[in-house]
Amino acid sequence: KREFLRKYFPADVKNKKVIEFLELKQGNLSVAEYSVKFEALCVFSPHYNMVEAEEDKCVKFESGLRPDIKV
């Protein structure tokens, strides 16, 4: 999948997806919907796909949740 995206996905579209991921907030989405969108967009941000970045990924996910849901 990554090879396909790398080969056939234009850089400007990829960059927009990275920005969309970095700015992602739960908003009116359910936690499940937010999680699905988070994982779909995370693919475009290489840092968050490394094993070493698992904690960063968790922090990013939690920071996007609505304040009333955060622990």
From TrEMBL:
InterPro entries: Retrotrans_gag_dom
Superkingdom of source: Eukaryota
Residue stretches making up the Retrotransposon gag domain: 1-67
The protein, known as: GRAS family transcription factor
